[in-house]
């Protein structure tokens, strides 16, 4: 068996090496033009005759290495002048019915054919800029990172630049023109430059994807397989000074019985986002008097776990161009302007006859600034700083009417600094430091981390790791603490056969929770992954992916007098495949032996001992290019000889596209837990109560989209979340993790929680980078201890509860100094 494995591994290595040796990057000479170009999508300007032609595209999925067919082929052209880059071409189609097109708004993706150009301006094979257009003229853009072992690998479509494009459809397909001003990209000051370059085209009805420089999906990284745009001469980064002032008006209605408060409140505000080019590579972004009132509502849930719910970041400033700040997974931007650290302490400060009349649940952001960029030598630098104002709860004396304030959050400064040095062969070394400084003698927090990722010359093997130190400084030096954490991994990332082995260790004092998302410390984990992929179509399939992964987790240090350090382990097998009819499906089998949960009891020194469990599941996704498409996921977990516990996760997602302008989608998530056991309460005698309970959770989301044009669209999203907890039996948790039956407690421990939200947004992009938004948001919450599992009864009760309605209008106008200077 051992010899067979060695031979198999050796064959995979030779195969990968030969494959990589065959690929010789294409080179496209840079052509400069002095002739004018009108961006109208027609390519009839004389300047295009001087442009360098990029054709002879190669398919990389589903068939690797196949050339385009005549009539469905691609011709593209590239040139530049003193102001920017011109990219144009024609995507030929034998039949116009073969073109997949849908209006989805900027960066909306949808089921669109597209063509895009990718520049690696520093030629480091790690960082790139992407610009895409669709047959209906919509734009996408993104920053790309190629290092698969970094935390920010992939594409960041929240990054946006301002550039021009136009598309024309005709009887032979569709043609396009793109102008990228140098302000929309970052590059060095060198007199002569060579950039990494690739161009990709995707046809969604056949899921064929082509690139100008051939891509092998068995080789790690997209940017590692780029071509070259050579001999770019005498281009100068422009003065980048851009302003986006905004003006907004809000009207909010919430019923209140308090005589001092009004149902309707109004707010008028204004502010500005600023982008300043500090050098050829570095940009300062600042938001002054920020306004995030129009972002999508959070997906609130009933949290029965011992850990905090992690919400998505919807504020553009904290999502756009933040790939450097995500290094090391130490930055969770929702901490900035998040929950005040002393939110609940106000209730401990109440005196006789006092009550809390106001207690804000979010801190207010005063301003935020970030500086980011990369030098020509590959050094990436990122600095982000934000300040929040102090927050106060109001306490009223019910007898005298006097009020006083209680500070729930001090003035706080949040800072993150990143240095990221890239090297040859897709490798890098990074340093990250996060800092939270609070006023009024509150504690401060700091985390410093070093990261590395090294690939061999063939981009096949990777050694990666990190080491971090956290420091909490309190008013009393005796309370200060210093913690340590590290990761180390070795992986094979290219070839059909891949693997990864890793260790993670965090001691009892390490925490990154003040500016990161951090659930628990005190662990040492070991994990492994082995995978094999079939990427050449054969028989009934286009692609098949197989993998086996396993992990084991133990405490780093024992807790209290509990002798066992073992936490949990699992073994999982996954099978995923795409058929020739473009249907994806997969199967999963998971086994988890007995485990010791040290967090479910909510009290140090205790653990909850769970039994063995088996999970089996599968998923299927239909061809999304069809008018009606769907995806279904189902996973069933059952415990073996342990209280007959079981639970099902079922998710059904459906989409129907009436035409290129109108579509509707529906997500239904069902999580029935007929028998589960979890923490319920801690009694006055400090005994921990667990309950055998029936939990039924339903998540129901409807999305509607209508696009008037490729610059104007309307979206509607309604979500109802319902979770009902019915406690059947009660137990006292013992020190050894076992459960001892006890008398039934109050039905007041049951839960029935409902959230209902509506987000309706009208957007009009009336000029490049300039938007008019009108938003209606409705938020309703209903909670009780009455167990009612009838879904429509819960929905009706929720809709009859007090509703918070918010209507807002916001205008953002983009101003570019160079354009203003030209007009003058």
UniProtKB/TrEMBL annotation:
InterPro entries: DUF5916
SUPFAM superfamilies on file: CBD9-like
Bilayer-crossing regions: none
Domain annotation DUF5916: ranges: 237-823
Gene3D superfamilies hit by this protein: 2.60.40.1190
CDD domains: CBM9_like_2 (cd09618)
Protein name, entry field: DUF5916 domain-containing protein
Protein species of origin: Runella defluvii
């Amino acid at each position: 068996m051992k010899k067979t494995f060695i031979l198999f591994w050796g064959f995979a290595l030779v195969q990968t090496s030969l494959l990589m040796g065959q690929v010789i990057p294409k080179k496209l000479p840079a052509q400069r033009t002095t002739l004018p170009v009108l961006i109208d999508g027609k390519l009839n300007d004389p300047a295009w005759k001087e442009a360098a032609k990029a054709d002879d595209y190669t398919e990389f999925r589903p068939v690797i290495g196949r050339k385009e067919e005549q009539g469905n082929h691609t011709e593209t052209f590239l040139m530049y002048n003193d102001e920017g880059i011109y990219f144009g071409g024609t995507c030929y189609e034998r039949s116009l019915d073969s073109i997949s097109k849908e209006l989805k708004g900027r960066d909306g993706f949808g089921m669109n054919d597209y063509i895009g150009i990718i520049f690696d301006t520093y030629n480091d094979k790690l960082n790139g800029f992407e610009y895409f257009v669709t047959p209906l003229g919509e734009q996408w853009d993104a920053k790309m990172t190629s290092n698969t072992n970094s935390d920010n690998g992939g594409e960041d479509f929240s990054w946006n630049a301002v550039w021009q494009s136009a598309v024309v459809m005709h009887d032979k397909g569709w043609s396009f023109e793109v102008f990228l001003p140098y302000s929309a990209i970052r590059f060095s000051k060198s007199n002569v430059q060579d950039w990494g370059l690739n161009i990709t085209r995707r046809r969604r009805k056949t899921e064929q994807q082509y690139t100008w420089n051939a891509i092998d999906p068995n080789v790690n990284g997209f940017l590692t397989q780029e071509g070259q745009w050579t001999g770019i001469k005498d281009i100068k980064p422009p003065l980048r000074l851009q302003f986006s002032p905004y003006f907004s008006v809000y009207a909010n209605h919430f019923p209140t019985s308090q005589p001092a408060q009004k149902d309707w409140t109004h707010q008028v505000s204004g502010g500005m986002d600023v982008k300043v080019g500090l050098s050829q590579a570095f940009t300062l972004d600042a938001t002054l008097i920020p306004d995030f009132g129009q972002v999508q509502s959070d997906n609130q849930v009933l949290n029965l776990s011992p850990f905090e719910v992690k919400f998505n970041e919807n504020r553009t400033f904290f999502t756009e161009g933040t790939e450097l700040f995500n290094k090391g997974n130490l930055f969770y931007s929702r901490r900035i302007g998040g929950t005040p650290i002393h939110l609940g302490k106000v209730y401990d400060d109440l005196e006789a006859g006092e009550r809390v009349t106001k207690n804000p649940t979010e801190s207010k952001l005063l301003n935020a600034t970030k500086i980011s960029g990369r030098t020509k030598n590959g050094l990436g630098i990122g600095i982000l700083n934000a300040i929040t104002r102090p927050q106060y709860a109001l306490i009223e004396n019910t007898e005298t009417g006097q009020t006083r304030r209680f500070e729930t959050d001090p003035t706080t400064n949040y800072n993150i600094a990143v240095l990221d040095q890239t090297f040859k062969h897709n490798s890098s070394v990074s340093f990250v430091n996060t800092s939270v400084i609070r006023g009024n003698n509150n504690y401060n927090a700091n985390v410093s981390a070093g990261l590395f990722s090294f690939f061999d010359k063939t981009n096949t093997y990777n050694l990666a790791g990190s080491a971090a130190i956290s420091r909490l400084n309190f008013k009393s030096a005796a309370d200060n603490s210093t913690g340590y954490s590290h990761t180390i991994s070795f992986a094979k990332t290219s070839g059909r056969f891949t693997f990864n082995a890793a260790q993670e260790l965090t001691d009892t004092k390490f925490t990154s929770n003040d500016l990161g998302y951090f659930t628990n410390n005190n662990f040492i984990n070991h994990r492994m992954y082995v995978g094999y992929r079939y990427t050449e179509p054969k028989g009934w399939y286009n692609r098949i992916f197989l993998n086996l992964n396993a992990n084991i987790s133990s405490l780093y240090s024992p807790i209290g007098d509990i002798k066992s350090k073992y936490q949990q382990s699992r073994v999982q097998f996954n099978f995923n495949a795409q058929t020739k009819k473009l249907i994806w499906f997969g199967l999963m089998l998971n086994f988890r032996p007995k485990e010791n949960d040290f967090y479910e009891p909510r009290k140090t020194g205790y653990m909850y001992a769970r039994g063995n469990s088996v999970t089996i599941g599968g998923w299927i996704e239909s061809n999304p290019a069809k008018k009606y498409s769907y995806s279904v996921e189902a996973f069933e977990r059952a415990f073996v000889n342990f209280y007959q516990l079981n639970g099902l996760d079922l998710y059904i997602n459906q989409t129907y596209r009436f035409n290129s302008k109108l579509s509707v989608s529906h997500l239904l998530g069902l999580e029935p837990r007929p028998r589960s056991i979890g923490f319920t309460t801690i009694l006055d005698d400090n005994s921990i109560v667990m309950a055998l309970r029936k939990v039924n959770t339903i998540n129901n989301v409807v999305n509607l989209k209508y696009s008037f044009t490729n610059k104007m669209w309307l979206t509607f999203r309604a979500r109802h979340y319902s979770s009902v907890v019915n406690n059947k039996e009660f137990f006292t948790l013992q020190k050894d993790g076992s459960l001892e039956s006890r008398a039934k407690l109050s039905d007041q421990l049951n839960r029935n929680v409902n959230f209902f939200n509506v987000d309706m947004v009208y957007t009009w992009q009336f000029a490049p980078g300039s938007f008019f938004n009108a938003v209606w948001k409705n938020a309703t919450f209903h909670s009780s201890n009455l167990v009612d599992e009838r879904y429509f009864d819960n929905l009706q009760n929720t809709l009859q509860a007090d509703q918070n309605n918010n209507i807002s209008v916001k205008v953002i106008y983009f101003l570019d100094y160079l354009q203003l200077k030209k007009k003058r």
